[in-house]
Amino acid sequence: MEWLIDKAKLRLLQGDITDQYVDAIVNTANSSLMGGGGVDGAIHRRGGPTILRECKRIRSYDWPEGLPTGKAVITSGGRLKARSVIHTVGPVWHGGGKDEARLLSDAYRNSLELAIKKGLKRISFPSISTGTYGYPMIDAARTALGTVKEFLEKKDSMEEVNFVLFTESDLRTYEEIAIALFGKPR
Ligand code: ADP
């Protein structure tokens, strides 16, 4: 499904984020930036060792204590089709009372800000925090889509924002929330 928000396309797709041919894909990193499972594992596996090398450099120069939750950094895409990878850390779900929604929103917003700062116009997100970090899919979809909508209404240099959902059921959840927030798709 696809919507037009201001001048930008917002699309919901099912698939593997590492197949995306865009300016930047977003990684569900952890604060160590040293790789992990889920999306993180898939990106480093397919992107090759240069991404990890760049992550190590970022750790030692910019974030010696680790990347805080909600922040974002950028590396090249290595052998991926995507030109760059934006690494962000989503919040671990603790039941909803630990500022999770604000931190998840920060992860999306800071990733988009960084993309714009680097002149990147087409970006693909996975569903941040809904794997290992345990965030309920419905709540995550509401925050993810609401944050992107608000961002696209304010800034007009982004051309395309894709959400790449891993399973059919995750895609359906995002679609339901998107219809509620944006109305009928194009
Ligand atoms: P987190 O640690 O932020 O929870 P995960 O990478 O464990 O991140 O999972 C985030 C979401 O991405 C989950 O909903 C998971 O099903 C999905 N996912 C896992 N691998 C991929 C992939 N290769 N492409 C797209 N989505 C993926």
What does this structure look like?
The chain has 186 residues and is α/β, with parallel strands linked by helices. The protein has a single domain (2-182), classed as Leucine Aminopeptidase, subunit E, domain 1 (3-Layer(aba) Sandwich), CATH 3.40.220. It has five helices and seven strands, in the order βββααββαβαβα. The chain has a seven-stranded mixed sheet with strand order 1-2-7-6-3-5-4, sandwiched between helices. It is globular and about 45 Å long. It starts with a strand and ends with a helix. The structure holds adenosine-5'-diphosphate. Adenosine-5'-diphosphate binds next to α1.
Task: Please render the helix and strand layout as text.
Layout: E1 2-5, E2 8-14, E3 24-29, H1 38-47, H2 49-61, E4 72-76, E5 84-89, H3 100-117, E6 122-125, H4 137-154, E7 160-165, H5 168-182
Parallel strand pairs: 2-7, 3-5, 3-6, 6-7
Antiparallel strand pairs: 1-2, 4-5
This protein binds adenosine-5'-diphosphate (ADP).
Adenosine-5'-diphosphate (ADP) is lined by residues 16-18, 28, 37-40, 42, 90, 126-133, 164, 166, 170.
Q: Assign the CATH architecture.
A: 3-Layer(aba) Sandwich
How many helices?
5
How many domains? The number is 1
Q: Segments where pLDDT lies below 50 for 5+ residues?
A: none
